[in-house]
Specification:
The complex is a heterodimer of chains A (223) and B (254).
Chain A lengths: L1 H45 L4 H16 L2 H16 L5 H29 L3 H9 L4 H31 L11 H12 L3 H27 L5
Helix pairs in contact in A: 1-2, 1-4, 1-7, 1-8, 2-4, 3-4, 4-6, 5-6, 6-8, 7-8
Chain B lengths: L1 E12 L2 E12 L3 E5 L6 H8 L7 E6 L2 E6 L5 E3 L2 H8 L2 E4 L11 H11 L5 H14 L15 H13 L5 E5 L7 H16 L3 E5 L3 H7 L2 E6 L2 E7 H6 L4 H12 L1
Parallel strand pairs in B: 3-9, 3-10, 7-8, 8-9
Antiparallel strand pairs in B: 1-2, 1-4, 4-5, 5-6, 10-11
Helix pairs in contact in B: 3-4, 3-5, 5-6
The chains are: A mainly alpha (223), B alpha/beta (254).
Chain lengths: 223, 254
């Protein structure tokens, strides 16, 4: 009898959390796909010889790193209404989450890229230059592949943090997994939904770590 | 014909004048050694000739084409980028620290530029690279990565990489300084072999015996000026200038 209740309860938790899980995965993938390239552009701006560009990127990175992500999400979501009086549609919720996450993560990725790029010995650039490679070729054929190997562990850290950060989407009522878990916990008066959600996050990160380790191994063919 | 002509070049880093009114020429097939104590400006001279540093005044010509010339007010003005690109194809440079690309195999280190800069086909580039590796005694290392090779082997790969673009003139910046003494021999052998094939070379070194044995002509530099220059054997056995004598004496005592 009790077994039945618990398994029923678990089944309900799994089914409702899976819906939220889908949103969580969506936020995760979209953020990565957009912020990884954007971060590279920001890093270029940050290292640019153009003073205006360099300083604006510096300030942007500083704000993104210096304020809570939760607050940034709220600014992106409520900002258009409070500042410009625009009406906010319910679809905008999801876009706001993606915009907020991408802006935040691009800043962190930019600093990681910059660290990696600046750690490259000048001899690599000089060798490429003497051999006649263009700047574009030098970067994408010679420099960037080596930078990726150097920064992969730091990228992995950020990606793992992102999995957990997706739960912040709750603050603007995007129904991701954590939102679902909290709703279930209060309706069932149980911590079980939180435990299950925790397990889901853990498994996701286990998979992420496993995939990233695979990338690292693939780049271990040289030193 | 003079492949390289350097006329009255000067270069300063801030207040520090590293090159003072230096002139030199390199003829087709000539092997020129540049010697001198550290800080004499010999490496800077090489870096200016290979576009890794810019000069403040003076002129540099490759095959009579101007790479850089003085304007009316005596400041060095460089040729436009398409001219520089062509001029860059006239020379190759071998670095002290090899600067091989660690993420590429030995073969790809050599073929990457010919394919993507020289517009050779993959087959041509590979065939050419294998021939060069054969010449360097490294044919069996084509699929190895730089970290798997000794310093001497890495330096030979970097020589092959430079030769793969068929330069008219090859520069060496202290090619043996980063190597254990017992490994320098293999580089000397390669350079001698190239000299016997009439490759035009400019070699910056403080390995005196090496300069004397392989170079036809030697410049002795100190504190940014060419103190003395001349036929290699004469300069080493019968130096005229006090500073040259002093430098060579130190070398004899070693």
């Amino acid at each position: 009898m009790l077994d039945g209740i618990i398994s029923n309860e678990l089944a309900a938790i799994f089914s409702q959390l899976s819906v939220g899980l889908l949103t969580t995965v969506e936020i995760f993938i979209l953020t990565l796909v957009l912020s990884l390239p954007l971060g590279l552009l920001v890093a270029f701006g940050r290292m640019s010889n153009n003073k205006l560009l360099r300083w604006s990127m510096k300030i942007y990175i500083s704000i993104m790193r210096g304020t809570p992500l939760m607050l940034q999400l709220m600014m992106v979501y409520f900002g258009p209404y409070y500042i410009f009086g625009m009406s906010i549609t319910s679809e905008y919720r999801f876009y706001a989450v993606i915009i907020g996450f991408v802006l935040n993560y691009a800043a962190y990725f930019a600093e990681i890229y910059r660290g990696g790029i600046e750690s490259m010995p000048s001899g690599q650039y000089e060798a490429a230059q003497v051999l006649g490679f263009s700047k574009f070729q030098t970067f994408f054929r010679i420099i960037f592949p080596q930078v990726m190997k150097r920064i992969l562990p730091s990228i992995t850290n950020e990606v793992i943090t992102l999995v957990k950060d997706t739960s912040l989407a709750m603050v603007i009522s995007v129904g991701e997994m954590f939102t679902a878990a909290r709703a279930l916990a209060s309706s069932q008066v149980s911590v079980l939904p939180f435990v299950v959600a925790g397990a889901f996050y853990y498994i996701m990160n286990y998979v992420v770590a496993w995939i990233m380790e695979g990338f690292e191994k693939r780049m271990n063919y040289y030193k | 014909m003079n492949l390289l002509e350097i006329k009255n070049i000067s270069k300063a880093f801030g207040d520090n004048e590293v090159l003072k009114d230096i002139s030199m020429t390199v003829a087709q097939g000539q092997v020129v050694g540049i010697i001198g104590p550290s800080g004499s400006g010999k490496s800077t001279l090489l870096r200016c000739a290979t576009l890794l540093e810019t000069i403040d005044s003076g002129a540099i010509y490759y095959k009579r084409e101007p790479m850089v010339e003085n304007n009316a007010s005596g400041q060095a003005v460089y040729a436009n980028s398409s001219q520089l690109k062509r001029i860059r194809s006239y020379f190759g440079l071998v670095f002290q620290n090899f600067n091989l690309f660690p993420h590429f195999s030995v073969l790809r280190n050599i073929t990457e530029a010919p394919i993507h800069v020289g517009k050779q086909t993959r087959e041509q580039a590979k065939e050419n690279a294998m021939r060069l590796l054969e010449q360097m005694g490294l044919a069996d290392k084509a699929d190895a990565y730089p970290y798997q090779l000794s310093g001497g082997q890495q330096q030979r790969v970097s020589i092959a990489r430079a030769l793969a673009l068929n330069p008219d003139i090859l520069f060496f910046d202290e090619p043996t300084s980063a190597l254990d003494p017992e490994l320098t021999g293999e580089i000397l052998t390669v350079i001698r072999e190239l000299a016997s094939k009439h490759m035009t070379m400019v070699i910056v070194t403080h390995e005196m015996s090496f300069a004397r044995d392989v170079a036809d002509y030697i410049l002795f530099m100190d504190r940014g000026v060419v103190v003395e220059q001349g036929n290699a054997v004469d300069l080493v056995s019968n130096p005229q200038h006090e500073r040259t004598k002093l430098f060579l004496k130190r070398f004899d005592n070693r």
